[in-house]
Amino acid sequence: MLGLPIExxxxxxxxxxxHRTILLxxxxxxxxxxxxxxxxxxxxxxxxxxxxDSFRSESAVRTWLIGILxxxxxxxxxxxxxxxxxxxxxEDEDPNEALEQLIFDGKxxxxxxxxxxxxxxHALEQDxxxxxxxxxxxxxxxxxxxxFMLREMVGLETEEICQELxxxxxxxxxxxxxxxxxLRECLEQRWFNAKRK
Amino acid sequence: xKTCKDISSLLSDSMDRPLTKRERWAVRLHLLICRHCSRFxxxxxxxxxxxxxxxxxxNDKHPPS
Lengths: 197, 65
Known about the structure:
heterodimer, A: mainly alpha, Arc Repressor Mutant, subunit A, 9 helices, B: mainly alpha, 65% helix
């Protein structure tokens, strides 16, 4: 809970708590440090409460809050004196090399070729899709998932990700490629080609 | 001649940096004849869009069936 007056017109106490939970989970995914994540969320909510903006829907508020939080997270990573590298990742060996062998044959052709996805944008509007997305993301190797999140969600440049994960540029490139291959494959199987009720 | 694997890697790169002229040509040529990689390219853009919009779901206790 924030020790702040919450008579703000953009959200009541309940909404604030809901948002806070989501923001904290998002921050934890990206920052891997509870205290740092708490701080980032606190700063985000403070910044939000200080503005008088009003929003039509709760989901608009959430999108806006996530936007602020992303800035806080990338500020954190860009601060020169911060280093939160994973100790185990100082080598370029990729634990998940086998992935490519499942996707491409020895000649570099697709084994199961990507299928045409019907109305992909429609998926973004469905809660169930996001559960699948999250599940697929959690199913990537930890390093791949981190590289992907730092790039696509936090918006760091590749060089910054190499530094953060303490890997070479070429390894970073490989991680991102494999993360995308894995996530794509999983979404295709679990969502786009899945038979749903 | 570049394989689908090579091209998919370049397509992934193109989400992170501008490709060189030579790389762009290689990709363009390949995509003219390969619908698999063309789809992959579309999917990469979709992943980017989804990641941008993503926020954690309120309940993670539901693995997809």
